[in-house]
Design a protein that fits this description.
Blueprint (H helix, E strand, L loop, with lengths): L1 H26 L14 H11 L8 E6 L2 E4 H14 L3 E6 L5 E4 L3 E3 L2 E2 H7 L6 E4 L8 H12 L3 E4 L3 H7 L7 E2 L6 H7 L4 E2 L5 E4 L2 E4 L5 H13 L1 H11 L17 H12 L5 E6 L6 H11 L5 E7 L5 E2 L5 E3 L2 E2 L17 H16 L1 H11 L5 H5 L1
Parallel strand pairs: 1-3, 1-7, 2-4, 3-6, 7-8, 8-12, 9-10, 13-14, 14-17
Antiparallel strand pairs: 4-5, 5-16, 11-12, 15-16
Helix pairs in contact: 2-8, 3-8, 3-11, 8-9, 10-13, 11-12, 12-13
Length: 385
């Protein structure tokens, strides 16, 4: 009797799962079209620049900090590559411990130094500390180090979900801020004293800057360059990375957990037998920002994972001096699973090209699914170019 009861119970639960799941999906909103938000007032833009002006060094010192086990790929590499090419500040990558930093969802890099060594070399601290998303929001070593840097006068910049790490330091309490849409509710629940600001890619308040989404690293980096070296320099770098127009305006309402987003995640996850490992050749002098965007995007489809490969296991030095280790040693990769070489492709172009390639390979829903994770406002024209 008990076995029959268990069997019927199991069958009933199995039947209920799709019913409950279907009902849950119906409660989710449909996709929202991205609207062009109103322009940022010049007064607001000027106030942002004033809040980001360097106060101590003529040539500022910028530290990008991460934990060795799992720091977000693009959050860590994009500010580095853009700020290094601007050559208006000294930019160093840090880890809380010795050895390489494993990035997620892909790549492994050798940081310039550790936080302890940085403190010894620069006892007065950095001018700016850039905080990417990390696998742990409250890692004691990184939280305490950020707090000490803020006490020394550094402007703290939380990139995307790096805002959760900054929130763990207490530095956002009572301040205006933003973060990635996916983590917003949990962020607000855990830190109720933060004053969330919608419809802004960048929010700066009393020594702390936060941004929305991974792709916001581009306008944040350009805004920081403008604060340090002026509009002309920022415009030159913007042209170099393929983003001639940038600003802080954002349509937050277009980025949320929608029915198409959930369906794509479920469908692509269930297609586990059809998952691909795509090869991406790692070469010297590669543009690290473009590499990060390409590898990150392909690894967010839930249908594929990008793998960097090279003929040896030696680290390759990127365009701006970062050392990245190949994930596999191989001379070649099967042609049907080989991604185009990144080389020196401008980052904005690399991202749009990659999203179109994902659309061709897996469909528009998956390309939009990736763009949603990046919180990247993908225009209708970018889908057809």
């Amino acid at each position: 009797m008990s076995w029959r009861f268990l069997a019927w119970s199991g069958a009933a639960i199995a039947a209920l799962v799709p019913i409950v799941g279907g009902a849950w999906l119906l409660t989710l909103p449909a996709a929202s079209a991205i609207k062009v938000p109103p322009p940022i007032a010049q007064q607001e833009h000027d106030a942002t620049l004033a809040a980001l002006k360097p106060l101590r060094r003529a040539r500022p010192l910028i530290a990008i900090v991460g934990i060795n086990d799992m720091t977000e790929t693009t959050d860590y590499l994009m500010p580095y590559g853009i700020l290094k090419r601007a050559d208006v500040a000294d930019v160093v990558t840090l880890a809380t411990g010795p050895g390489p930093v494993t990035l997620f969802p892909v790549l492994k890099v050798e940081p310039d130094t550790t936080t302890a060594a940085f403190d010894t070399a620069h006892p007065d601290g950095a001018d700016y500390v850039i905080v990417p998303a990390m696998s742990r929001d409250d890692d004691p070593a990184v939280v305490q180090w950020i707090q000490r840097q803020a006490e020394k006068g550094a402007v703290i910049v939380g990139i995307c979900a790096g805002g959760k790490v900054v929130a763990s330091t207490g530095l956002l309490d009572g301040k205006r801020a933003t973060t990635h849409w996916f983590y917003l509710k949990g962020w607000q629940d855990k830190h109720p004293r933060i004053q969330y600001v919608a419809d802004r890619r960048i929010v700066v308040d009393r020594g702390v800057a936060t941004t929305t989404g991974i792709s916001a690293s581009m306008p944040m980096s350009l805004t920081l360059i403008e604060a340090i070296a002026g509009r002309g320099k920022a415009e030159a770098v913007a042209r170099d990375i393929g983003l001639p127009d940038w600003n802080a305006r954002h349509d937050s309402g277009a980025f949320k957990f929608t029915r198409p987003f959930a369906l794509t995640a479920i469908r692509n996850t269930l297609a586990f037998w059809n998952r691909e490992q795509l090869g991406l050749a790692l070469t010297a002098d590669v543009d690290e920002v473009s590499l990060a965007l390409v590898a990150d995007s392909w690894s967010r489809t839930y249908r594929s994972h990008a793998v960097t490969f090279a003929k040896t296991d030696a680290a390759q030095t990127t365009r701006n001096g970062l050392r990245i280790y190949p994930q596999q040693v191989a001379a070649t990769w099967p042609a049907e699973r080989l991604l185009p070489a990144v080389g020196t492709t401008p980052p904005a172009q690399a991202l749009d090209t990659t999203l179109r390639a994902i659309q061709t390979r897996y469909g528009t829903d998956t390309a939009d699914f990736v763009a949603m994770q990046l919180e990247y406002p993908r225009s209708p024209a970018s889908r057809t170019e």
